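Per reviewer request, we include the raw input and output of the structure prediction for the construct analysed in the revised manuscript.
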Amino acid sequence: MNKPEGKLIGVVAYLTFIGLLIAYFMNKDHKHEFAGWHIKNMFGLVLLLFTSVALQEYIVGAIIYWISAAMWIFSLGMAILNRQQAIPFLSEKFQTWFKFLD
């Protein structure tokens, strides 16, 4: 399978919060659809992580944390494998909600 343009940026987006910022600014000059898709997906995962931290006093916070961690690993794997497939339902919503990241 051919390497899509912006693959490196897409993978960097999943490398912590700093990686998300770096990927956003790298993609700002030369927009790549693949990278933009993964940047929006990671932004949604970061918001889920912040939600889990805000709810850490409750069991639901721990559940959200582990679910978001599993989704992060899955999404990173999809970026490495050159796919825009990710989390059912949520990835579609992330793409709609976070258009300001384009």
